[in-house]
Amino acid sequence: MDQSLPLIGFTSECQRLTIAIQKRQPLLILGPAGSGKSTLIAAALANLPKAQGVISIQPSTNLHRLLIDLGRCLLSTGHSTFRKRAGTGSEPEKWLLQQTSAHLKGVLWTSLEADPRVIVLDGVMGGSFPTYRFLQRLYFTKGMALIASARDPVSLGVLSRLFWDPRNTVHLRPLNEAEANRLFDLAVARFGLSHLDIEEFRDKVLEAAKGNPGQLVEMCRLAPNPMYLMGKHIKFAPLRIDVLMRFL
Fold first, then answer.
1. Cys-Cys crosslink for 188: which of 9, 93, 193, 231, Cβ 3.0 to 4.6 Å?
2. Does the residue 3 lie in any domain?
């Protein structure tokens, strides 16, 4: 979703996520593509002070890439323990790329055990046993918390073992009619659609999106493209097909 649009319909979910971060509790956010998972995370993080100690990444299915991304985040957020243990000098990126997975795991473990953080894995798409074993140690580290978002439990792969408690799971529901209409109006303003034939387009968008905020916003974002216009009329069928392809 377009991050310039406000979070609509997920006030309680945002509060739940904020509390989990503040209290350093594990949390799993589940919802289909476009349901607002990343927007929810961004909204919660925006309301927290930078000193809260949160690392948010889009995790790779490759463990080595995940380790490098975590290392980059620790360096960019000023994690002094990691920087000291890494001995990065003036070329941290070069140092990171030269490390083996085994060495990086050790440095990350000891650094985060000494100075814990909340790690947000935004958009998990499969998890291997090596990744699970790396994160498992962090999961049980005092002061640490793992928060993840995924389309469904199957998408977690082996990482589902870390989020076994249903009490620590938030399921994102579709927007209701009033919420969807409000988001549509905001998207019309955001993407400059008011000069087009909007009411017929509104009905088709709301019916097709079925409360999915990401799909709703994406249809509005694409609507001004000349390939979907015939005068002031928006050609909905080809637009809808292209949006569906993006959410597979």
1. 193
2. no
Shared domain for 196 and 151, answered yes or no, is no
Task: Give strand pairing partners of 54.
Answer: 118
Q: State the first-to-last Cα distance of the chain, in angstroms, to the nearest integer.
A: 15
Supply the range of the domain harboring residue 110: 11-171
pTM over 0.85: yes
Nearest residue to 149 via CA among 244, 17, 243, 19: 17
Per-residue pLDDT of the chain (248 residues; tens, 9 = 90+): 667 788 999 999 999 999 999 999 999 999 999 999 999 999 999 888 875 689 999 999 999 999 999 999 999 888 999 988 887 667 888 889 999 999 999 999 999 999 999 999 999 998 899 999 999 999 999 999 999 999 999 999 999 999 999 999 999 999 999 999 999 999 999 999 999 999 999 999 999 999 999 999 999 999 999 999 999 999 999 999 999 999 98
Residue 4 domain-assigned (yes or no) = no
- If one counts the domains in the chain, the total is 2
In angstroms, the CA 52 to CA 231 distance is 50
